[in-house]
Amino acid sequence: MRISDKPASDGRAPANERPGLSGPASRKLPVPPRERKPALAALAVLLILGGALATTLLVLRSGDRVSAVGIVQQVGAGQLITASAIKEVQIADTGIDYVPWRYRSEVETTYAAVTLLPGTLLTSAMVTKSSEELGPGKAIVGLALKAGQAPVGMRKGDVVQVIYVSAGGKGTAQQRVLASGARVHSVGAPGRSGSGLVSVVVDTAISPTVAAYASSGEIALAVLPGAG
Q1: Nearest to 132 by CA among 74, 210, 188, 76
Q2: pTM for the complete prediction?
């Protein structure tokens, strides 16, 4: 019997000739087409452009500086606003109802409607053409105070009690309040032995009494911090 050189065929194809796999494992899922939204893209562009424009306007407007009236010295309500109490300040034009510096001469003829503190930007609502503090029925009385008769740091515009203090040392029975809400009109430089000269605005009905006691050194002042 002759043995054939060809191997017997078992009906299987060689490995390199096997067809590719077919079936569920080799199939790819279909990819849905990407949905385009031109309206949203346009809106995003508009928002970006709008934000950039707003930022540019703010930067440009912040560079617009204007001159306004600023307060550098405390001015009590009802007191005349003097030239030494104001100065020119540069601010951004933001629509605030400030008083322009070009009207400073008119400001110096008006009175403070409220107590004005240093650093305040003056507005038209803070001033008035007339003063109830210095109007009819009021008088300015000068006081020569000694050490201890007025608190340290008392300033123009403060509201004070004017108190009679007996110089004879007769006790508290002789002490009484002459004016419960007087306004300090001016404060002079303190002397070596006292608090200096102070003038206060009081009612004309009690001004003679205050002046009489002040001449004998029997007046003391107490500041009312919450009454300004």
Answers
A1: 76
A2: 0.51
